[in-house]
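Could you join me in thinking about how sequence relates to backbone shape in a protein? We need material for that, and I hope you will provide a protein of your own picking. Label the sequence line and the structure token line clearly, so we can match residues to local backbone shapes. Would you write everything just below, so we can both look at the same thing?
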Amino acid sequence: MKIFFNYTLTPVICALMVILAVVAVVKQQEIDSLRHKLVLAEQTAEARKGMVEEVRLLQKALTNSPVRTVTVTAYNPTTDQCDDDPLIAASMRKVRQGTIAVSRDLFDQGWVFGRKVRIEGLGIFEINDLMNKRFTKRIDIFMWDESKARQFGKKNIRAALLAI
């Protein structure tokens, strides 16, 4: 019996343990592969949601008139008028002369980062920033000089979203 156990049963048990270990490694590789595919599927779904939302905004922008009468004010790169980093706009680009911030209702209607806006009597500006949620139908012109911004004040002016 001892010979049977030592020379027959022990090698069979060892072989089974090796086979089980190989099966476990293969199954773990399959699990890792499935996890990777799941992450890719989730990223693809998230990207598709973003694209659908962007298409929705663009369609909404096409149906809305590009000319609006809006309240126009001016702002400076200070923490009391912006956030903790007043030199970086909501578009994640640096603030600069010739750019504007738009209210979120306009942004949702296609007045998005990079688009050009002609403000009657003032010129053409690029959308680079967003205003606080409490403002609607409003544009804020970026100015470095605080006294010029205060002097500009608050005006109701026609503005047109340009298709350039």
